[in-house]
């Protein structure tokens, strides 16, 4: 497989690129990169150079994104994105315009190519209290700018596939965890609190949330890129764990050697909280500065980001890490941190 990767120095890309090299050889892998914005990105660039990966410097918001002509490839892994749910509309432009500009640059070589697009559970989201898990055909009702831009990226991909002759596979990702991801967002703060035994981290949040280990994502992307039956398919990706946020906090506490003594939310209080966070009136009256916190709370008290990954597991039946296995691997790597993809 000759592969092109965007976002190769990011969280998932840093695990994906070496696996592509292992399977196909360094000469078959090309990465579109930019100047490193963090030590982890700089380390990844050095590693890729050491492996012999071809690095093309470019900018997804420029036209053309790269001065060179696109390489002939079999698969494109489009991972580059701004995943910060606190980011402004301007900062999230790369999720939309970057996808559009990438496809425009690829047009001369894209017929017959498979494009694997890293999307997000945030394209689904919920507008009312959940009554079951999310599946691929669930309503697309993003409540954040991030979710809206990832959904628009999906729509651009579908439209261009029909005119440019490539096929695509869309992977909607939940919380992706593993070594090397930035610590940010309320869920990550909750995990940090749990590891320190802090009061907020002890609350037994009942909302179920899907998770997946970063290496499992990388492996699935490569396999599905080569799977003809995955052409034109969209998958809700998740491990086989079905856990609540409270259970996740306890698992992390156990993994770091600080067991969490959970505090249950009284049923009456939980009912009141749920009625408020899922109220459209309350949402409209909420100050803009508090809306993201309001949104995150809804995911912690209800099953907001819980996937039914049956379709994905039929397409990718290989064993995946349990939460316990994933945490053990993660903490075995020096300097590892828990983080989420919200």
Note the main attributes of this structure.
342 residues; seven-stranded parallel sheet; Rossmann fold
Q: Can you characterise this structure?
A:
It is a single chain. By secondary structure, the chain is α/β, with parallel strands linked by helices. The chain has a domain at 3-182 and 210-241 and 306-322: NAD(P)-binding Rossmann-like Domain (Rossmann fold), CATH 3.40.50.720. The protein contains 13 helices and eleven strands. The protein has a seven-stranded parallel sheet, with helices on both faces. Strands 7-9 form a two-stranded parallel ribbon. Strands 8-11 form a two-stranded antiparallel ribbon. Helix 3 (93-106) links the parallel strand 4 (75-78) and strand 5. The longest helix is centred in the middle third of the chain and has 20 residues, at 145-164. The radius of gyration is 20 Å and the shape is globular.
Identify the CATH architecture of one domain.
3-Layer(aba) Sandwich
According to CATH, the homologous superfamily of one domain is NAD(P)-binding Rossmann-like Domain
Name the poorly predicted regions: 338-342
Structural class: alpha/beta
**Could you describe the largest sheet, including whether it forms a barrel?**
7 strands, parallel
* Overall strand count: 11
User: Helix fraction?
Assistant: 40-55%
CATH class of one domain: Alpha Beta
Task: Kindly report the CATH topology of one domain.
Answer: Rossmann fold
Outline? globular
What is the overall number of helices? 13
Give the mean pLDDT: 92
**What is the strand content?**
5-15%
The N- and C-terminal alpha carbons lie at a distance of 31 Å
Q: Rg to the nearest angstrom?
A: 20 Å
- What's the arrangement of strands in the largest beta sheet? 3-2-1-4-5-6-10
Order of helices and strands: EHEHEEHEHEEHHEEHEEHHHHHH
């Amino acid at each position: 497989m000759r592969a092109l990767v965007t976002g190769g120095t990011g969280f998932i890309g840093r695990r994906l690129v070496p696996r592509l090299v292992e399977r196909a050889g360094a000469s078959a892998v090309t990465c579109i990169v930019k100047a490193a914005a963090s030590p982890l990105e700089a380390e990844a660039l050095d590693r890729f150079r050491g492996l012999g990966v071809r690095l093309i410097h470019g900018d997804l918001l420029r036209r053309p994104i790269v001065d060179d002509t696109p390489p002939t490839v079999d698969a494109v892994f489009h991972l580059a994105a701004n995943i910060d749910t606190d980011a402004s509309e301007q900062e999230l432009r790369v999720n939309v315009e970057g996808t559009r500009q990438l496809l425009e640059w690829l047009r001369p070589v894209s017929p017959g190519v498979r494009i694997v697009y890293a999307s997000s559970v945030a394209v689904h989201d919920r507008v009312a209290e959940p009554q079951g898990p999310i599946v691929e055909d669930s309503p697309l009702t993003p409540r954040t700018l991030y979710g809206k831009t990832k959904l628009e990226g999906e729509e651009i991909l579908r439209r261009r596939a029909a005119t440019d002759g490539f096929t695509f596979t869309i992977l909607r990702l939940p919380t992706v965890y593993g070594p090397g991801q930035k610590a940010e967002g309320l869920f990550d703060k909750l995990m940090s609190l749990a590891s320190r035994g802090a009061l907020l981290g002890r609350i037994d949040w009942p909302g179920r949330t899907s998770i997946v280990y970063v290496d499992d994502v990388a492996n699935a992307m490569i396999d599905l890129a080569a799977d003809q039956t995955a052409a034109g398919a969209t998958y809700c990706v998740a491990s086989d764990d079905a856990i609540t946020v409270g259970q996740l906090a306890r698992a992390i506490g156990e993994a770091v050697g600080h067991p969490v003594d959970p505090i249950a939310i009284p049923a009456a209080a939980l009912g009141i909280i749920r009625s408020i966070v899922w109220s459209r009136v309350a949402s409209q009256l909420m100050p803009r500065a508090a809306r993201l916190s309001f949104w995150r709370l809804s995911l912690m008290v209800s099953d907001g980001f819980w996937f039914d990954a049956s379709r994905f597991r039929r397409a990718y039946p290989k064993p995946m890490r349990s939460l316990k296995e994933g945490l053990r691997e993660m903490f075995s790597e020096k300097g590892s941190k828990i983080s989420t993809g919200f």
